[in-house]
Amino acid sequence: MFKQQFWLVxxxxxxxxxxxxxxxxxxxxxxxxLAVVGGIAWLMTVTNNDKTSRLAVVDAPQVTTxxxxxxxxxxxxxxxxxxxxxxxxVDKGKIDNYxxxxxxxxxxxxxxxxxxxxxxxxxxxxxxNQYAVLTRAKELHLSQAELAALLAxxxxxxxxxxxKGKTTDGDATRTANRAMSTALGIGIFVFLxxxxxxxxxxxxxxxxxxxxxxxxxxxxxxxxxxxxxxGIAALAILHLLIYVVAGTAVALVLPDxxxxxxxxxxxxxxxxxFMIVTGLLVLIGILLYMVLTAIIAAxxxxxxxxxxxxxxxxxxxxxxxxxxxxxxxxxxxxxxxILSFVxxxxxxxxxxxxxxxxxxxxxxxxxxxxxxxxxxxxSWFGLNVYKKNVLQYNDGNLTKAAIxxxxxxxxxxxx
Length: 415
Prior knowledge:
Blueprint: H1 2-18, H2 21-46, E1 53-58, H3 61-70, E2 75-80, H4 83-91, E3 97-102, E4 107-112, H5 121-139, H6 144-151, E5 159-161, E6 167-169, H7 170-208, H8 211-218, H9 221-253, H10 258-268, H11 272-297, H12 306-326, H13 334-339, H14 346-355, H15 361-389, H16 398-406
């Protein structure tokens, strides 16, 4: 009987919230925002009227020849004999910039026309530096092989070796995991804020309209308590799956897009163990917040008290989010290290610490075990608090009533 009623309540809660505009507004808003940003970027690219810069080199044929051969400077290179000829070309609109070479001091002066297409100064500087090196090499009678050996840079490749002996590109893995951790920190906070408000409104709605008495006459408090949590949790999972499907579809439809390639390259460096542990930590963390919110929401008398009741829960979620941003700065901070194992904040802190290699997957599994233990505890013992308050209408200070009721999570009834 319990099982049948449980699925009935869960399904009804899911269907009711699934049809609301608020749910689809939250789901589609980020997707629409990304689509608008992508559309604007595409439109700016298509309507870009920037012309290739035109650069004239004054009386330096060797420099002109080198710049034309190297093709590193994105400009149409030409040569003029004198500065006066360059100025005449400017007046006629034939060039945008001209380069004056002082052969005695080997200094260069770039003159750019106001309103013309400028030359990338850094690229031009690098090309001229390379030309100066080649010129000095010829004066010293160095061969191409000797010059290449002299200028050859040293390389340092970082590799990360897992406990299983698997070696991966360290920089790519760390970059990918950090990006994933930051995205998760923001995403988790948004999810928690939205679904905490949803489940609190669900319970407060029924309590303020006195429907709860009718529902509990037909079912048990446990059915209502766990059924509503399951229904909202299924909605959150669907929300996440929509984003996964949408992201996969964009990657398949636009594989050559620069932004899509950048995101897929980052995600390709994320190791599977990090994704699994992080996914489970996030899922259990969301369930923890839902259970706690359901307990608190049972204490409100009407909708006007919902914001007051769930505000501390939102602040608690914000603590984990803010601290996760500090992990990259102080990853081995003792407070952050301890809190990364504490339920209600571990779902954001532990993935962040794993991503910067200051915590292991084993640490993540320990944090996950603690989350599950706390979830089981507050679910079954919190049910007693829910039963006590769901049909009770408190007068006076709501915070005081909440504290007195939550004592039941830690102090057993001896009667």
